[in-house]
Input
Amino acid sequence: MRNTWIIARTTLGDALRKRVLLVFMMVAVVTLLLAMMLTYLTAREQRTAFLALELVIILIFGTLIAVTTAIFLIPDEIERRTIYSLLSKPVQRWEFFLGKFLGGVLTAGVCLALMTLVLIVVVFLMAMRQPESALGPMLQTSAEQEPLNVAKWFQRGGQDVALVLRGAYVIFFQLVLVTAVATTLSLFVSPTVNFSLTMFLFIVGQVQFVLKAALERNELPLTKVVVGVLYYLTPHFHDFNIMGSIIHSEVRIPVNHWLFAGEVSLYGLMYALFVAMLGILVFDRKEV
Amino acid sequence: MMSPEGRRKAILLAVALLAGCWLLARDLEPKHAHYVQAQMPRREPGQRFDPLLQHSRVGNVLLDETPFHAIVPAVLGVRELVASLLWIQADSLFHRGEYGPIMDLIYRIVAIDPHQIDVYATGAWHLAYNFMDKRMILDGIRFLEDGIRNNPDVYDLYFELGYTHQDKTKDFLAAIDALSQAVTKGTSTGDPQPPAFVFMQLAHALERAGHVDEAAEQWRRNVEVAVELEKQHPDDFKYDQLVYAARHNYYLTLRRRNERRAAELELEGNGAEALKRWEDNIRLAQEMLGHYPGHDQLEQDLKRAQTEVARLRAGKINRTPPPETRLEFTVRRKAPREIEVAGTINVPLYSRVRVILRDKDYERLVQ
Output
């Protein structure tokens, strides 16, 4: 595993040198600007709009970073012929593949962590504004005029930070899964095709419930088979979508949120390992 | 290269992982359905958004229950984002004075994301207040009721509904219903209790509905709520004022109840019972003066109660009946679309009299 870890670390360093961080910086600046632009809304409207926007931005940018990193991980090594010098050393092929995959996961994880950090800071600062009723100004109870209650601010801020962390935790395992898919597909297809295929699988995974409905209600045997294969084999990215419960945390759902997050992350991890295992098996026999 | 044994193990591991994924996915599906269900608008039984979807065989529950214009954000899992962006657009339209498309936009927003509490509150406010059309007040009420169906666990929309009933429809019983619910709900930020003004509003609604005993009881509870809040925020002057307002209103309600009851008792010739009421008012005023010594109005109230007690103890009972209002008026058509209502009413100077002119079949028309 030592070899795997060294390859993973090197991959992370390479990826970060490719200025992936610039994307993060851009997102961070946009995030802060957006937060400032939405202050004309009430505190609750601002929080809702901001969280909805930022969680989607983090998911989309995180996915793009994960995919664009993973699709080049192995093809670049082959193209630059550095893979030969690596494999001539006492490094197993599975160690190389796993190291590359872990490097991709680390890259996505670091970017996600930085984006989440910015989001946490902004969300915590936003919690300073006290929520008020829409009729508040009419009833002369405008929360804006009240002195800052630090204990309440920290309470609200702490709740929101916990929510953001839960969202980021679940998004991370989506990125692990996306990285596994893109790394494995990179053994078969060119980076451009790989990008399209991975994004296709990601989108199909997001609309799994449509496939399920089509599967349940379709009467044509051929389409039923096609849809069935797609439904059962493609990763269920849809299950990772818990944004509603983070943005509207006041809505009661009869599910233990952290338990669900744990279970869905286990699913993501297991599916990613399955896909990576396929990649290891293919790469083991692949002519490079 | 892996050994054949290693390869066999890897294949077995892959198969085991796939099986594990499949089992987990089956377990996750019903749990995730709760998350999806929570994002969808709740309707009355049989009520659908879009008649086109009523007999549709497309999709599962999510698609059946989702209005057509909400399908894309629902499918892409970005309901909240799309709703928020539309809300920002609606807000801009309002501030530009373009009121026409706002309500259409607002109905769309809550169909996409039914948990936008401020959109419900603001939409209902536009309908009941801003569009200056009394026929729309009931639309605002219905909109708030829809919002409550979708957000039953927080106080906000119950309060808005209660306030709108109290201020606009003057249906105080409906206001009491809504506000009684509001005081039992928490806030969207997790506070188990709504803000103090919700409790105060309920007491006002009870008063205006003529439920004086219940109003007094509510004011007593409001004093408890306010005192508790003051203890929690000893340095915040606002809560000091809140305690004062609650105590003052509690006192006023009890004082007025005693005065009216005493007047009734005197009219019946029961001076002894009337005396007890005025003595009670002395006690109330003294108690309040204990909290707020030197308060002008309280001093005057005390003096008046003492005078009444002295009069009643002297055996002087006032059996003068309350004045007749003797409302008399004539209606005259002055010109097309113009009528004049003129008359007299025997009430004290500066009394407030509310006159409502309605079509004969108004109730049917507003339905």
Summary: Residues 4 and 98 of chain A are 6 Å apart (CA to CA). Chain A touches chain B through 68 residues (CB under 8 Å).
